[in-house]
Predict the 3D structure of the following.
Amino acid sequence: MIRIVIDTNLFISALLKPGSNPDMILRSVKEEKVLLLMSVTICHEISRVLFYPKIRKRLTASDSELENFLNLLSSVAIMTSGTLDLPLLEADPDDTKYLACAVEGHADYIVSGDHHLTDLVMYRGIRIVTPVDFIKILST
């Protein structure tokens, strides 16, 4: 089964835009078509961003529904330690957490809309693709 790491912005986009490519990717996780890899660091970032005031006011879900979403994510995901010591990504050191998770979890893909990641194209044999490209991969 395909193993993927998804960046935080895609989780947020999936919640804000039902039917969007990020939402379709999360549905593929829910339908067990792909395996989601996450680390504690990624979970914390998702939680933090979900509760940013500008994001929170755009979401119709209650705080408890968002907490349930986060709990569901961590229960369906394969959790990695996120502690692998990698050289920091120069363009955006904070994005190194996705690379570490992907390497630790033996990911096939990192799915991201962040050019700091997508510009890499590949990292240690792991393809880095946009949501549109990943949807195409899933449909083949």
